[in-house]
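As noted in the main text, all predictions were made from sequence alone. Below is one such record, for Cytochrome c oxidase assembly protein COX19.
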Amino acid sequence: MSTAMNFGTKSFQPRPPDKGSFPLDHFGECKAFKEKFLKCLRDNNFENTLCRNESKEYLECRMERPQIKNLSSRRSLRSLEL
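Prediction:
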């Protein structure tokens, strides 16, 4: 039985990220917003409904980053609400 692997037969097909997924913030461009959001969560016993404004600010910061603009179109935050 041959166990040779043929790497040339299959090609990788990239796909766009899922809705709401962002690349990692490698450069820390939104770190201040993230820290503010996390502090709010800790101060409010992780009740995320009490930190909606901080969450919104962080999400807006992430959507404004140049490396993200090419990955997803700008969306209204209302379209992300449940």
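The two ends are 53 Å apart (CA to CA). The helical segments are 31-43, 52-64, 66-69. These features were considered when defining construct boundaries for the mutagenesis experiments described in Section 2.9.
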